[in-house]
Amino acid sequence: MSEIKKILVANRGEIALRILRTAREMNIATVAIFSEADRNSPHVRYADEAVCIGAAPSSESYLNTKKILEVCHQLNVDAIHPGYGFLSENADFARKTGEAGLIFIGPSPEAIEIMGSKLAAKQAASHYNIPMVPGTAEAISDREQAKQIAHEISYPILIKASAGGGGKGMRIVENEAEFDEQMDRAVSEAISSFGDGAVFIEKYITSPKHIEIQVLGDQHGNIIHLFERECSIQRRHQKVVEEAPSISITPAIRKEMGRCAIDVARSCGYYGAGTVEFIMDENKNFYFLEMNTRLQVEHPVTELITGVDLVKQMIFIAEGKSLAIKQDELHLKGHSIEIRVYAEDPSNNFLPDVGRLERYVRPQGNGVRVDDGFEEGMEIPIYYDPMLAKLITYGQNREEAIQKMIRAIDEYHISGVQTTLSFCRFVMQHNEFTSGRFDTNFVNRFFLPQYLNPAASEPAMQLAAMISAYFMQQKNPEKPSQNNGELPQSSKWKTQRLKGI
Ligand code: ADP
Ligand code: ADP
Ligand code: MG
């Protein structure tokens, strides 16, 4: 056991602040790092000490392993928390942190390596009784053979980058005629975005829900799960609305999914906080998708329904303590919803928007939590992910959490950049969402930019949504996606922007 006295947070924005706050509660001294673009960020002022580590591009700052380790050495830091994104899933960084005599607040480099490859993850999990999406177990090397497999599992299929993440590196293939073209694109995207051209096939589940399980493991082999999060409201395969618990699963499914998640974690000797993601079809069959070996963006909803501070647990685990929470002591209480407030224009294909936060007023009140990293007057840098904040509500039940969310969105005033707030309000009021019928196609199926017109009354919006859904269904009853394997324009733009990071 080694007590942590000083933590460096190798991240920025809301997640940096969130970790710094917990460290302060634990009387641990804190160090923030920042790039030249983030000089005025709240996380810089919040920490006991802060060091500028380089120019705005992440490759010169937040991804600069050498510089980060140097700062740790100079300031006598004894542990690094990587947050999410940036170096959080970089096994080499975790290894170098250990070699420098520091504690990496996360899993072992070996676990990160295995789970960082979707194929290696499936291979590890295959030793346990865990359902997998039908597809190929290895990277495609022989196209004709791959086509044969695609034919056997039947189209549509997905070609996925083994190293993919953040919803990138996936192509839908509707039929065999499209196979070669989509395969070429998938490989070249995988190389340009992740530096690894390995791709594989998965059956494309046409009406799926994304449900994931939070796990915590200690360094002594104890692993527990903290129930599920439902994350099916996505744009370009990336989540925008998350909630816990999921309205779609029964206690029996929850128990079995929890068992599978613990086994996936066990398959790589996992310790720390991690998330095991599943996809669930219309018949409530669920399949293992991947494991994220880090704190997840949407972790607050789990904190609110379980009362467990996940960052605090991560720190205890990193110190070598045994988990003090036992599985049978954990109980679900109430309901929590999170919306991601992105600087994006929902009426323009969710294209990232940059600019100055002219006005920024947070909602408050009972059951409302805002995790953010910006203040009024700040410029939103173009260099990083455009997420401004997360708005989280907690209620005794789902209906109350939704009502609080609508109220909180109405209190949230942001001007200077377009945000996803209006879109999220649309979601909260939509029948498909309130009824729990929605799946990952919600945005494609039910959302049209004109619904965000504030002049439109609620019943008119609902009616317009119903009409559009009806026509969409008539036009193409089976079609799972409207974009022919292509990601929307904005996503390509973002991929370009993230290149070289
Ligand atoms: P989560 O998996 O935590 O629910 P995301 O999928 O949105 O959330 O990813 C978490 C963060 O990591 C986001 O800020 C996202 O931009 C970033 N991220 C994840 N994978 C990649 C990637 N391959 N390239 C760039 N950024 C990524
Ligand atoms: P990432 O590493 O980018 O998060 P995931 O494998 O977790 O990749 O998939 C991200 C999202 O893409 C899922 O939440 C789901 O919406 C969609 N997706 C992934 N695999 C499938 C599949 N086999 N069928 C249908 N949708 C899928
Ligand atoms: Mg995922």
Layout of secondary structure:
Layout: E1 6-9, H1 13-25, E2 29-35, H2 42-46, E3 49-54, H3 65-74, E4 79-81, H4 91-99, E5 103-104, H5 109-116, H6 118-125, H7 143-153, E6 157-161, E7 170-173, H8 179-194, E8 199-203, E9 209-217, E10 223-235, E11 238-244, H9 251-267, E12 272-280, E13 286-292, H10 299-306, H11 310-318, E14 335-342, E15 344-345, E16 351-352, E17 359-361, E18 368-372, E19 387-395, H12 398-411, E20 413-415, H13 421-429, H14 431-435, H15 442-446, H16 458-475, H17 489-498
Parallel strand pairs: 1-2, 1-4, 2-3, 4-5
Antiparallel strand pairs: 6-7, 6-8, 9-10, 9-12, 10-11, 11-14, 12-13, 14-19, 15-16, 17-20, 18-19
Helix pairs in contact: 4-5, 5-6, 12-13
Bound molecules: adenosine-5'-diphosphate (2 copies) and magnesium ion.
Magnesium ion (MG) binds next to loops.
Question: What does this 3D model show about the protein?
Answer:
The model is unreliable at 474-501 (pLDDT under 50). The chain has helices spanning 13-25, 42-46, 65-74, 91-99, 109-116, 118-125, 143-153, 179-194, 251-267, 299-306, 310-318, 398-411, 421-429, 431-435, 442-446, 458-475, 489-498; strands spanning 6-9, 29-35, 49-54, 79-81, 103-104, 157-161, 170-173, 199-203, 209-217, 223-235, 238-244, 272-280, 286-292, 335-342, 344-345, 351-352, 359-361, 368-372, 387-395, 413-415. It is globular and about 60 Å long. The chain contains 17 helices and 20 strands. The chain folds into three domains: 6-105, Rossmann fold, CATH 3.40.50.20; 134-203, Dna Ligase, domain 1 (2-Layer Sandwich); 209-344 and 357-451, ATP-grasp fold, B domain (D-amino Acid Aminotransferase, Chain A, domain 1), CATH 3.30.470. By secondary structure, it is α+β, with helices and mostly antiparallel strands. The strands form five sheets. Strands 13-12-9-10-11-14-19-18 form an eight-stranded antiparallel beta sheet, with helices on both faces. The structure holds adenosine-5'-diphosphate (2 copies) and magnesium ion (MG). Pfam families: Biotin_carb_C (PF02785), Biotin_carb_N (PF00289), CPSase_L_D2 (PF02786). GO terms for molecular function: ATP binding; ligase activity; metal ion binding. Residues 475-501 are annotated as: Disordered. Residues 3-448 form the Biotin carboxylation domain. This is Propionyl-CoA carboxylase alpha chain.
